[in-house]
Amino acid sequence: MSDKAAPKPLNLLEYHRPKRLRISDARIPPLSAESKRCLKNLSAYRPHRPKFPYPRERSAAVLVALFVGRLGDLYVLLNRRSATLRSYAGDTSLPGGKVDPEDRTIEDTARREAFEEIGLPINKFKVPLLCILEPFLSSNQLIVTPVVVLILDNTLRPILNAAEVASLFSHPLVSFLSSSPPFPTESELVEVAYHTSGEHTYPGPNGTTLTSRWHRFLTGREAGGIKPVFGLTAGILIRTASIAHAPRVPDFEVAPPGALSSEARIAWAVYSHPTFREAYEHEGLRVDWKTVARVAGARDTETAKKRDTSSRHRRVNESERRQTKLRTKL
């Protein structure tokens, strides 16, 4: 009896992209000139090819679902996570989750999760893909890839999964480039800025200490219990808005000087965190640790070589055990 094949690494560049958006047939308000430019920018965007494979069990996706508002501007759907969830309960987030075994691509993951959480149809014509962004690293060591889509039917109605989502609301996409609120400031929030940011440090390559910056945006719904857009979700939406509204840039500093790129942060986590090493070994994925170290900006130390050798030895030992077991049966 043959062993079960190891899962293939996710192909982040495999996706369904329509030849053109059929805006004229869509059930949406007329687009503003700025929104037309945004959609053109997003549709033309291509992510960089990953320099090494990502393990499926440490991969996740979120769906950045855009729709056209009454005045032709672009809005993004956000949800309030259920208070009963074990992690990030009550937080404001994008629909998404970890890769399932049946997901063929990262786009499949994002669409499936959005269908399960908010009932957004897995219809690639009513909800066509605009682009896939480079992945982000979450605080719980997941590689999260944003998948950006456009809802072409404003008559669609959400069906919330109460076990995961408490409520659904929207926010102007362009407001993630501004430190000024897109809504009238409520009296009880006068002392709270619409956009705030902070920094935290963490151990980096070669004994360095690195700094990253988090961002927080008010939703204007805080009085009703909705939390601000924060952390990873805020970072993803800043990036989406920056691509859409290029050449416009945020009126605040996104990252501190000397900060690692998202790609380098992922590489450093893969190189230094045992969770990733275990995932690679469990899935039987071959990893060129020298490449990972180079992308992370780490020195090519003996550690990388030992990891590569250790992985090969484990595969050889496993093969020998299987052959011995087979000979014993015969």
TrEMBL record:
- Show the ranges annotated as biased composition (Basic and acidic residues): 298-323
Q: Which stretches does the entry tag as region Disordered? A: 298-330
Identify a single GO molecular function assigned to this protein: coenzyme A diphosphatase activity
Per the record, the domain of life is: Eukaryota
* InterPro entries to which the protein is assigned, alphabetical: CoAse (IPR045121), NUDIX_hydrolase-like_dom_sf (IPR015797), NUDIX_hydrolase_dom (IPR000086)
- The record places domain Nudix hydrolase at 57-194
Note whether Transport occurs among the keywords.
no
Q: Which GO terms describe its biological process?
A: coenzyme A catabolic process
CDD domains under this entry? NUDIX_CoAse_Nudt7
Q: What is this protein called?
A: NUDIX hydrolase domain-like protein
This protein's species is Mycena metata
Q: Lineage, please? A: Eukaryota, Fungi, Dikarya, Basidiomycota, Agaricomycotina
